[in-house]
């Protein structure tokens, strides 16, 4: 399915930045487009360690294996269940649905109470408890009438369809909300701690304020408390100076990467170091100021508007909304080892979420029914893709 003719040359060539990441600190691409000294940080891999790592081939490939499910309304978050099945959130309908990845059958678990969808807000990221096998807890990030918050709910699949979600337990609240820039991605890391990407809700000053929860990556326990070892005392703030983070993923060395919407010039892929300042609003894209941690890759905002990311086959795979393409960023350590490579340009419209399906397979979620896309018959959908 080709939505529109693919241009022979991209309007703006993706620029790879493989140098200048500072360890000292530090609307065009929205969905449609007083700092403290850290108390501690964790070290990133050294140049010697990175040199010892093998980079994947400069060029990769993408094959769409099949369409897993169709006719989804404003899908946003995706969480694969350990025993099979995919949980998907509807941003605007505030529902969570289970998709059988073999047959495409959809079963609604229920509606999440308290969600107030508007603009870029609503029911967004999903994550499963690191102890899901025993506690069956599903975590969700959503916009309420007053803020963005994170809740957890018991999923009881023995109950009738529509009644399988327990009452939400709010574990974290007070994240600034706005019509735009609500962040929304949550994920449990290899350390079994919960990470959340937030936006500055259109108030750019929040990003540089380490006492604010807006424009940050947050790190907390499964109960919503600031995680031990965080860089700012008694704070969930893990990194700051972000505009709107909607992509979080770890490589096979447990290093965190995040995708970020720029404004009018540069979207970013960042390697995250705890306590570092990623520049917004003082810097968009690469900066010569050593106070700010530079991105490892950047794109013109028409080429990306990045939401979800996943790691597979030695590369970060980044879903583009306005860019309507899937980007491959091959890695060597915490640097891009070759130019980013675009796939599926214009073929499936806006791309919201990409999640590892194990090995060389990914789940890819489109986002054409979100009010900014051009939905076609069958939208929105979940695709299974094979990558290298």
UniProtKB/TrEMBL annotation:
Domain of life: Bacteria
Signal peptide: 1-19
Any Pfam family hit: GSDH
Keyword Coiled coil recorded: no
SUPFAM superfamilies per the UniProt record, alphabetical: Soluble quinoprotein glucose dehydrogenase (SSF50952)
Biased amino acid composition, Low complexity: 31-58
Ranges of biased composition (kind: Basic and acidic residues): 371-388
Ranges where the Glucose/Sorbosone dehydrogenase domain occurs: 72-372
Residue ranges of the region described as Disordered: 20-60, 367-388
Keyword Signal: yes
Record key words, sorted: Signal
Stated name of the protein: PQQ-dependent sugar dehydrogenase
Species this protein is from: Streptomyces plumbiresistens
Record lineage: Bacteria, Bacillati, Actinomycetota, Actinomycetes, Kitasatosporales
């Amino acid at each position: 399915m080709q939505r529109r003719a693919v241009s022979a040359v991209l309007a703006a060539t993706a620029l790879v930045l493989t140098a200048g990441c500072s360890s000292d600190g530090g609307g065009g691409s929205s969905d449609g487009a007083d700092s403290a000294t850290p108390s501690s940080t964790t070290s990133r891999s050294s140049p010697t360690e990175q040199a010892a790592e093998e980079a994947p081939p400069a060029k990769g490939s993408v094959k769409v294996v099949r369409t897993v499910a169709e006719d989804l309304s404003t899908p946003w978050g995706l969480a694969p269940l350990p025993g099979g099945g995919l949980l998907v959130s509807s941003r605007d309908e505030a529902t969570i649905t289970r998709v059988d990845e073999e047959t495409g059958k959809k079963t609604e678990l229920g509606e999440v109470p308290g969600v107030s969808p508007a603009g870029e807000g609503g029911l967004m990221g999903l994550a499963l408890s690191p102890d899901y096998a025993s506690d069956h807890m599903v975590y969700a990030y959503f916009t309420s009438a007053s803020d963005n918050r994170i809740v957890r709910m018991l999923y009881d699949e023995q109950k009738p369809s529509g009644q399988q979600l327990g009452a939400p337990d709010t574990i974290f609240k007070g994240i600034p909300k706005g019509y735009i820039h609500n962040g929304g991605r949550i994920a449990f890391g290899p350390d079994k701690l919960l990470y959340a990407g937030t936006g500055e809700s259109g108030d750019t000053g929040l990003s540089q304020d380490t006492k604010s929860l807006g424009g940050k990556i947050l790190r907390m326990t499964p109960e919503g408390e600031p995680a031990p070892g965080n860089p700012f005392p008694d704070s969930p703030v893990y990194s700051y100076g972000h505009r709107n983070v909607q992509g979080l993923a770890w490589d096979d060395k447990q290093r965190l990467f995040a995708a970020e919407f720029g404004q009018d010039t540069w979207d970013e892929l960042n390697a995250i170091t705890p306590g570092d300042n990623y520049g917004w609003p003082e810097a968009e894209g690469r900066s010569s100021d050593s106070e700010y941690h530079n991105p490892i890759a950047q794109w013109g905002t028409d080429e990306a508007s990045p939401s979800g990311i996943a790691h597979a086959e030695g590369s970060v795979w980044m879903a583009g909304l306005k860019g309507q393409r899937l980007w491959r960023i091959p890695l060597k350590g915490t640097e891009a080892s070759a130019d980013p490579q675009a796939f599926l340009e214009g073929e499936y419209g806006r791309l919201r979420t990409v999640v590892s399906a194990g090995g060389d397979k990914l789940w890819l979620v489109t986002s054409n029914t979100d009010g900014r896309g051009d939905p076609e018959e069958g939208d929105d959908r979940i695709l299974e893709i094979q990558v290298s």
